[in-house]
Specification:
The complex is a heterodimer of chains A (556) and B (395). By secondary structure, chain A is of the alpha+beta class. Chain A is built from seven helices and 28 strands. In chain A, the strands form six sheets. In chain A, strands 19, 22, 24, 25, 27 and 28 form a six-stranded mixed beta sheet that branches. A five-stranded antiparallel beta sheet of chain A has the order 1-2-3-7-6, with no helix packed on it. A five-stranded antiparallel beta sheet of chain A has the order 17-16-12-13-18, with helices on one face. In chain A, helix 2 packs antiparallel against helix 3. With 395 residues, chain B is mainly alpha-helical. Chain B folds into two domains: 174 residues; 219 residues, particulate methane monooxygenase, chain B (Up-down Bundle). In chain B, strand 1 and strand 2 form a beta hairpin. In chain B, helix 3 crosses helix 4 and helix 8 runs antiparallel to helix 9. Classes of the chains: A alpha+beta (556), B mainly alpha (395). At the A-B interface, strand 4, helix 2 and helix 3 of A face strand 1, helix 4 and helix 5 of B.
């Protein structure tokens, strides 16, 4: 964490720093929750997994069958490096009473790792399996409730007092023939025995408490920690250049699998202005060194920014770099195009063609937000029933409820716009809880990365090769080609064989008008959802505010 | 002290008590010996369950066996204490007094304490799982409390048996069963301690100092005490025999039952219940201890401890070291020795799997044996003292 608190922080930056330090998580920030939409056989389904922050633990796998009535649903979790060969047998999910089409089963997850959750559906519409990437990490410890500790104190006291009395009684009377009354020396011996036992017991209890502390420390040391890194913006040749350096020793000693491009980019970097969340950039920094990424900072207002850098490892693990960074005043006051006209050189990298940024003014979910190139964009929450219209924006969204965030884009004439693929899919959405405790990057398939899914599938098929830099470069090139031609609906997976599999999502096809993100807000609170789509060759960014009510059912 | 004592007139009861004192086995001894057996069986079953299936709930048969043991021990002895304290008249004079008003056999008190400790560990363990995850390590503070509970129930059984043996006047003619009950309960204690230290008795450590240091710490104490306190000619041997038979039984019986691992990652092809290791050859040093106890009967306690402690290390090493070599060979991977008893999660390149010992430099090993010798002498001395006290227990 590069937490430079050099000057007075605006509004909630202090809170932000606090939260980032404590709740920064893995695949996304602040949660390991998975919401995934895909197809298994003839059944479109939505899989929801919300791991508790304890590992090992039982994790509920919830499958909502969106269409049709399957006869059997099974779930199975395979750790990324052992596959189903080393996984327990598939287990049958049961229909959740009172929730039609929803099946559920708890899986035992024993390690902090990345898993391929195999969801298999059987039924008249055709059987099939879909792989859902899941990451687990230990993120919390549980304090003891006062009732429990009171009970344990009472029982513990009873045990201590009982043991001392028994030892005394044993020394006093244990070896006496029946009926004989203990003599005074025996009584004295008994008192000495009790006192020595008390001393030993005190020592044992002291040792026990030290042991408990050590176990607690050990557990805490295994809690999830963000990847250590530093970030800074400096001005080079009249440009603001952001440098991100990873300082993690695990990373630098190659003890994790290498990173790989996720929809064509090695890093998806999000800069969101900390105080009002009204400025956002989605950038793709250049990797200039094994542990260093650089990018130009586009024409955004100066200030403190939240920094989220999404990385994908070849194990299928997603990690997010988290920091705050101070962006100085732009040295040249210029429009976006002026900034782009600066000749890039060795120390000033060029912008990526898919980089996009905007100063936004957020509207409430359900309302239309005007777009820079004309027309409007609307975000609505589809809970499975009627989609609330712009006229009734009072959508009640509660934490833990799965839903679709439905995006509608209209041209200036009111017609529904045709969307072009943006990095291989219909659009991207970024969800930020306003206290910065939660940040998630969504795709039309859900919260998971398609490349992670393809990677887990590749491993399951027996391909355990780790890609070298040449293979990664080819993968990036192919992804660029796909994006530019905007022809295929296939995910920029490294291995195109996978696209024929059941799991290939169908929701991100090119040139569509419909765009939706399956999602579930992990907790209550005030959220801002940023949506990015590409229309007529221009990437549009809009922001929507959602107030999420507490969960109606207790979450685990 | 049969259970009909409440319904017979006082005079008659006195007579029956006297008769009981001479040869009958008190019913709560039977109950606690059953409880101790149930705990041991459950514990072995549970360990095998975790090596094989992995996943469990409170309601596994293994857990039920353990808790049945706890319940039987606690309830039977609790009942006996209440009967003696409040419903017996005149008050029996052959128990020990706790908190002035409660009276009961010493072993019964230990069994009750063990049952309460087990009871305490249950919610503690439950919270531990919620806070720190399902068991990653077997040895955690709540499990230590549970283990202490087991041990106290076993010690309770042993003390009840010792008291019965002390009061039993018929052993002189060799017809008595109480010494055998003492040997059986001592054998269960030995088995329990061997299980608790099983981590240091792994095959791969059989050529390492730590293996012999741990053995020297635990086994001379139990074997010497048993040899000293049990009224049998070969008491230590009988105790070691109980351990050997129980451990062999699990080696031979558990793999008869098919089972599949239910937790991942699974690294071994496990199709049947995986037992714990083949027993250590404790019967060999036990025989030596029996012979030396007799040969050194006239000597001082420290001399006896010195002789027996050193003999334990020498004889046990002479037996176990080459046996370790054998266990590493493919010839031991069969239904008799079960050296292929790898738990499902054991990596396929683990030393035990590839048949490799943990090696340490010769100097380190020598130092290890030096420490083991000192520890064995101290352990034997403590065993003598404990055995003396045990043999005197009458209540």
């Amino acid at each position: 964490m590069n937490a430079q608190v050099a000057h007075a922080t605006p509004r909630f930056s202090a809170v932000v720093l606090l939260f980032i330090g404590w709740i920064a998580l893995s695949a996304h920030v602040g949660t390991n929750q998975v919401v995934f939409e895909g197809r298994a056989g003839g059944y479109p389904l939505r899989v929801m997994i919300n791991p508790s922050g304890v590992v090992p633990a039982q994790v509920p796998i919830i499958v909502r069958v969106l269409e049709g009535a399957p006869t059997r649903v099974t779930v199975r979790a395979a750790q990324w490096n052992v596959g189903t060969k080393g996984a327990p047998p598939a287990e049958q999910a049961a229909i959740v009473p009172g929730d039609p089409g929803v099946w559920s089963h708890d899986l035992w997850i024993m390690t902090s790792s990345t898993y391929a959750v195999h969801v298999a559906v059987e039924g008249p519409a055709g059987s099939g399996t879909v792989i859902v990437p899941l990451q687990t990490s230990a993120t919390r410890t549980l304090g003891m409730q006062s009732g429990m500790s009171a009970m344990l104190i009472v029982l513990g006291t009873l045990l201590v007092a009982g043991l001392l009395t028994i030892v005394g009684a044993a020394a006093r009377e244990g070896s006496l023939p029946a009926g004989e009354v203990p003599s005074t020396p025996r009584r004295r011996t008994a008192r000495i025995a009790t006192a020595s036992t008390a001393a030993l017991l005190a020592l044992a209890l002291f040792g026990g408490s030290k042991w408990w502390d050590a176990e607690e420390r050990d557990y805490k040391s295994r809690l999830f920690k963000p990847i250590p890194m530093t970030s800074a913006v400096r001005t080079v040749d009249g440009n603001r250049v952001l440098t991100i350096a990873i300082t993690d020793s695990l990373w630098r000693t190659n003890r994790s699998t290498p990173i790989m491009p996720d929809h064509g980019k090695l890093m998806h970097l999000f800069l969101i202005r900390a105080d009002d969340a009204n400025a956002i950039a989605h950038l793709h920094p250049l990797r200039v060194h094994a542990d260093t990424f650089v990018t130009r900072v586009p024409t955004l207002p100066e200030g403190r920014y939240l920094l989220f850098g999404d990385l994908l490892f070849q194990s299928g693990t997603q990690r997010t770099l988290v920091d705050t960074v101070d962006v100085p005043v732009a040295p040249v006051v210029a429009g976006e195009t002026a900034s782009e006209s600066v000749q890039p050189n060795a120390s000033v990298p060029p912008f990526d063609t898919d980089d996009a940024w905007r100063v936004v003014s957020a509207v409430a979910i359900g309302s239309a937000s005007p777009l820079t190139s004309g027309g409007s964009i609307t975000l609505a929450a589809d809970l499975g029933g009627a989609i609330p219209s712009a006229n009734s924006p009072a959508v009640s969204v509660s934490a833990g409820r799965d839903l679709r965030l439905v995006v509608t884009v209209r041209d200036a004439d009111g017609k529904t716009s045709v969307l072009e693929p943006y990095m291989g899919m219909g659009g991207h959405a970024m969800v930020l809880r306003r206290d910065a405790g939660i940040f998630m990057h969504l795709h039309p398939m859900g919260t998971a990365s398609m490349t992670a899914q393809a990677q887990l599938q590749r491993r399951e098929q027996g391909d355990t090769a780790i890609l070298d830099s040449a293979a990664i470069a080819i993968a990036i090139g192919r992804a660029e080609l796909n994006h530019d031609s905007a022809s295929g609906g296939s995910a920029p997976s490294v291995d195109s064989r996978n696209s024929s599999h059941d799991a290939a999502p169908t929701t991100h096809s090119a040139h569509s008008t419909a765009l939706a993100f399956p999602f579930s807000f992990p907790s209550d609170g005030s959220y801002r959802v940023f949506v990015q789509v590409r229309r007529n060759g221009v990437v549009e960014t809009a922001a929507f505010d959602v107030l999420v009510a507490p969960s109606v059912k207790p979450t685990r | 002290m049969d259970s009909s004592v409440l319904s017979v007139p006082v005079a008659e009861r006195d007579r029956s008590d006297r008769v009981a004192r001479s040869h009958a086995i008190p019913w709560q001894l039977t109950a606690v010996v059953f409880a101790a057996t149930s705990v041991i069986v459950g514990l072995i079953w549970d360990i095998s369950w975790h090596m094989t299936i992995g996943r469990d709930t409170f309601w596994t048969p293994a857990h039920l066996a353990i808790y049945t043991g706890g319940a039987v021990a606690g309830l039977s002895c609790g009942f006996e204490v209440l009967r003696r304290s409040f419903f017996a008249s005149p008050k029996p004079a052959d128990g020990v007094t706790v908190w002035r008003i409660f009276n009961g056999p010493l072993g019964g008190w230990l069994a009750i304490w063990g049952a309460v400790a087990m009871l305490t560990s249950a919610p503690f363990d439950d919270w531990w799982h919620d806070a720190y995850g399902l068991d990653v390590k077997i040895i955690s503070p709540p499990h230590a409390l549970l283990a202490l509970g087991f041990l106290m129930i076993l010690a309770g059984a042993l003390l009840l048996a010792q008291a019965a043996q002390s009061r039993d006047t018929s052993h002189a003619d060799g017809a008595s069963s109480t010494p055998w009950i003492v040997a059986y309960t001592s054998g269960l204690v030995l088995t329990m301690l061997a299980i608790f230290t099983t981590e240091y008795h792994d095959r791969v450590l059989m050529h390492s100092g730590i293996f012999y240091i741990t053995s020297a710490l635990v086994f001379p104490f139990v074997l010497v005490a048993a040899g000293r306190a049990t009224r049998l000619r070969f008491a230590a041997t009988a105790t070691a025999l109980v351990y050997t038979v129980v451990t062999c039984a699990q080696v031979w019986i558990l793999p008869l039952f098919p089972a599949t691992p239910m937790l991942g990652p699974i690294r071994q092809n496990v199709t049947h219940m995986v037992p714990m290791d083949f027993p250590l050859l404790l019967i060999v040093p036990a025989l030596a201890i029996d012979l030396l106890l007799r040969a050194t009967a006239a000597r001082g306690a420290w001399t006896r401890a010195l002789v027996m402690g050193l003999a334990f290390v020498v004889v046990f090493t002479a037996a176990q070291w080459p046996f370790g070599d054998f266990l590493m060979t493919p010839s031991a991977r069969n239904a008799f020795f079960r050296a292929d008893n790898f738990p499902y999660m054991l990596p396929t390149d683990a030393w035990g799997v590839i048949g490799k010992f943990f090696e340490e430099p010769a100097a380190e090993l020598m130092r290890g044996f030096g420490v083991a010798a000192v520890v064995a002498v101290l352990s034997a001395r403590a065993g003598l003292g404990w055995g003396n006290w045990l043999s005197a227990v009458k209540r």
